[in-house]
Amino acid sequence: MSSARETVLDNAAWHSLTSTHTALAIGGPLARRFPHDVAPFAATGGEPGGFAALAGLVGARESVAWCAKTRVPAIAGLRAALFGRVRQMVYRGRPPVPDSEDIVELAASDVAEMKALADLTKPGPFEARTIALGRYCGIRRAGQLVAMAGERLRPPGFSEISAVCTHPDHRGVGYARRLVEVLQAMILDRGETPFLHVLEDNGAAERLYRDMGYETRDMIDLIILERPGDDG
Known about the structure:
Blueprint: H1 12-17, E1 26-27, E2 31-33, E3 42-44, H2 50-55, E4 63-67, E5 79-91, E6 103-105, H3 111-121, E7 136-141, E8 144-151, E9 158-166, H4 175-189, E10 193-199, H5 203-211, E11 214-226
Parallel strand pairs: 9-10
Antiparallel strand pairs: 1-2, 2-3, 4-11, 5-10, 5-11, 6-7, 7-8, 8-9
């Protein structure tokens, strides 16, 4: 059952950009976004003029992602397209003792490998500075990074687990589950609650997370807002 404290998850990007990640934010009191090499998300605080301010943060041929319960109106100068529906899931389970053997914390020196793994497996956007959002952990085999997971949006009291991916040659042995359990233990130790987003059509991931103690809180539209170039 959803609690009052979870209302920040209705607009998780905004509450992350105005708290934990304020140092990374571009924008002001009405609208903010992450730099394109960190994360795709932009958000408003719900005040009048917020969407006009958001439009001013998107340059020619740029796009941002909107993932919040608030409906997006027509915004002058921007095109909106539905990317998909995402299932927002919150951890409500009894945490197991994580198996952290051979799990390593990843650093800036690992970003090239992390990006290559994300590009191959496509768990969601992972850019040159995405690692600035939080802690990332991985598993190596014969020196190769074969699985990883990390933190993304961090509204007050919560931390999103994201970029969960495993190389196709190393699937089926529980790496994703182990990484998520290690990350959620770190999050819970900070007194925060883990949450995550899963595309509606990704039934395998939804079943895994449900089995781990995550419950669906809401379904949210993921909208891409794009400003065309002069020729578009």
